[in-house]
Model the fold of this input.
Amino acid sequence: MGITVPDVNRRGFLGAIGKAALIGSAALLTPKVLHAHGSSWWHGLSQMSRNQAIVDATAPWMGGYGGSCKDWARTVVQTASKYHVAIPSTKAAPDDYRWEYDPNRNVITDSMCRLLENAPTGWIVQMKLRSGMPHTAIIAGKMSQSVLFVDSNWDLDGRVQTHLMSYSDFYNKLWRTWSYTLYYVV
Amino acid sequence: MKKHKNIYISILILASSIAIMFFIVQFKGTDEAEKKHISAPITSFNEPFTTKKIIWDTKEPIFASDKPDSVVRAIYDAINPTSEISFSGPSDATLWWITGDGWNTLDRSAVGFTIFISFNTLCERAVCIRHPTIQEVNRVIPPIFLQNSFTQNKLNSSSSEDDETLYDYILAFEKDDTKCTLITNPEITSHGTDFNNAGIRIMLACSENINQRYREQLPFLKALYAGRGQVGYEVVDIRKTVGDFALLGLGARRTGATGVFKKIDGSWQLLYVTQEQPLCSIIVKYDIPVEIYGSTESQHIPSTACFDKSGRMLASPNGPPL
Done:
């Protein structure tokens, strides 16, 4: 089924959204990219490249079995970074909308109060939903009214898929206001 | 003194300017960038749909029996395969059923099929749910159940298309032990391995095992909700029991977690809930056997691994080396 968007890449419609949003957010990220940690390949990349690598690393999983959302996200980051970076464990409930402090500073949250609308593609969202369940998703694309998540086990079947959600819907689904945290991997 | 004062004012103005510029870049930049790079889909939420109408078999489907297999097969065969929708199944499916006393029961050995309707436009729930093809499916299937002496179960059914109590739009039917749900997932999701194939799913699932699952799951549900003074709206999925330990999947209507339970003084108690392979410190604290904690169904992480808080993977203190 054809879809008319100006920038359709091999991933088609949803992929184009992600790509366009990533390009659009490049300028935003550039000034604060450079957390040089040692001399490893991963840490030498720009933040935009790291974000893109994370989104790219989700592609082979599409439609397949990813299992638990956090373990899957952890694996995506590990493969994207060629095992240079690991993301921290999630805090115990009821604080399971946040991760443990990362002493290695591989994972950064720049604010507890950043709106999802302002998080670029390739960032990771740790959220706690109204049901009380925690969830981890990667931002694969953004539009003015919606975010495209790629995640595992959203439908309780352990499957990796993308799903589109309006920002208002996202906030309505949260356990409490601000019961989510945005992370980027450096 | 006056000179110093001017310097301070200048610094203040400069700092304010930088702060304002930072704010503009940080909070407005994304929107501007998006407007520049994304065009067509943004404003298309209310465009009319153009999907063709489904063609249904003219024969009224009669269930060969009330068994789940027969019910699902009869409805599946009634849908004309030339219509502009795709199917997966009939195959194993999952049925979520709220019993009369309010507990949520899950049967992963149900049978069912999925209808996938591709969308070429974006929509929000209220619009998605009224897609002509979706309405057609939800209009045609319920009478098939009723004509075959099934009754609608209101506790498991949405009161209207806009009722979000059950998250999805659900119509439920039952006859004796056979329970069926017709679930319309109103979210636009990808289908299979193709990013391009975005749309909405409708899933039919039937089971005759709900009573058995209820008996199996109730002790864990009660343990999960012990002290909360309420009947929960989560389901449990018993994956493994080893000695006095049990590993269960915990699920809400979207997303899930893993719970480890231990039988203490003859009744199950919840030890912890996690969405990932556990912390090594938890394994030590509760002396959890490797057969339990290594079953979070994440095939890409060694089953004998555990993690420290920073995310470093370690060999479990109770298991073999990695």
Observations:
- Chain A has one domain: 12-185.
